[in-house]
């Protein structure tokens, strides 16, 4: 049976690799990104998908654009992947890049973004027989992670995990499973070249976990390999 995915932040890094693997498997993809005109690799994947893919333009928190996309989609979404994310300043108290503008951007994108996506595509998810919302978080958002830098990235991912739990509680009555995921330390622009795993490894593991999700898993925080993580 074909699964229909919608991925935000689908044009680079893990999002692009997940898009590639989803289309390669024969499933359907709605790919959302901020600037489709510049998303050359993503557009090439869509063009080669024989009509199983479509690209849409939206910022993570653009309520009007997300609502328009939801109205244009005919039928259900089985798996909503809230992947769009940004890194904040990596320094500590003395880092001048920790300013009001950068803090607002990272919190709105990483924490509020999944909320607005879930609200926009709620009606599409309810049409699925096995609806799932998968939020790409980070172990840096766990209260058990010890760190002394990247204050607002950490805070934004902790917030994303909290959004996940709250969505899981509210949407359980609709049969919608909600979980958040640590993608691993991945060799992307954000993760850096010294990271542990490739985007291909991360995406493959994540998609396997998305496929295995059931309502009994709702409200959980999982590693890309399926290991449970502390919130």
Polypeptide structure, described:
- The protein is 39% helix and 15% strand.
- With 231 residues, it is α/β, with parallel strands linked by helices.
- The protein has a 7-stranded parallel β-sheet, with helices on both faces.
- Helix 1 (13-24) packs parallel to helix 2 and helix 1 crosses helix 7 (199-212).
- It is globular.
Please provide a brief summary of the model.
The protein is α/β, with parallel strands linked by helices and 231 residues long. It contains 7 helices and 7 strands, in the order βαβαβαβααβαβαβ.
* Rg for CA atoms: 16 Å
Strand order of the largest sheet: 3-2-1-4-5-6-7
Write down how many β-strands occur, each being a DSSP E stretch of 2 or more residues: 7
Structural classification: alpha/beta
Helix content: 25-40%
Termini separation? 33 Å
Question: SSE order, as H and E?
Answer: EHEHEHEHHEHEHE
Question: What is the global morphology?
Answer: globular
The major pleated sheet works out as: 7 strands, parallel
Count of helical regions: 7
Strand content: 15-25%
- Poorly predicted regions: none
What's the average pLDDT? 96
Comma- or semicolon-separated keywords:
single chain, 231 residues, alpha/beta, 7-stranded parallel beta sheet, 7 helices, globular
What is the strand and helix layout of this fold?
Layout: E1 4-8, H1 13-24, E2 28-33, H2 40-47, E3 53-57, H3 63-72, E4 79-82, H4 100-120, H5 122-125, E5 132-136, H6 151-171, E6 177-182, H7 199-212, E7 220-223
Helix pairs in contact: 1-2, 1-7, 4-6
């Amino acid at each position: 049976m074909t699964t229909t995915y919608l991925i935000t932040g689908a044009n680079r890094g893990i999002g692009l690799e997940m898009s590639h693997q989803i289309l390669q498997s024969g499933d359907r993809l709605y790919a959302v990104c901020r600037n489709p005109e510049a998303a050359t690799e993503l557009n090439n994947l869509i063009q080669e998908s024989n009509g199983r893919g479509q690209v849409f333009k939206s910022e993570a928190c653009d309520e009007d654009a997300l609502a328009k996309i939801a109205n244009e989609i005919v039928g259900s979404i089985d798996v909503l992947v809230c992947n769009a994310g940004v890194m904040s300043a990596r320094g500590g108290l003395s880092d001048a890049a920790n300013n009001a503008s950068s803090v607002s951007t990272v919190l709105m994108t990483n924490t509020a973004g999944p909320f607005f996506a879930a609200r926009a595509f709620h009606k599409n998810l309810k049409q699925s027989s096995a609806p799932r919302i998968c939020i790409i978080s980070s172990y840096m958002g766990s209260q058990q992670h010890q760190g002394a830098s990247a204050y607002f990235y950490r805070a934004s991912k902790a917030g994303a995990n909290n959004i996940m739990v709250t969505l899981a509680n509210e949407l359980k009555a609709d049969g919608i499973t909600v979980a958040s995921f640590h993608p691993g330390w991945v060799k992307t622009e954000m993760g850096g070249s010294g990271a542990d795993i490739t985007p291909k490894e991360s995406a493959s593991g994540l998609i396997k976990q998305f496929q295995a999700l059931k309502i009994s898993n709702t409200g959980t925080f999982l590693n890309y390999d399926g290991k449970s993580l502390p919130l």
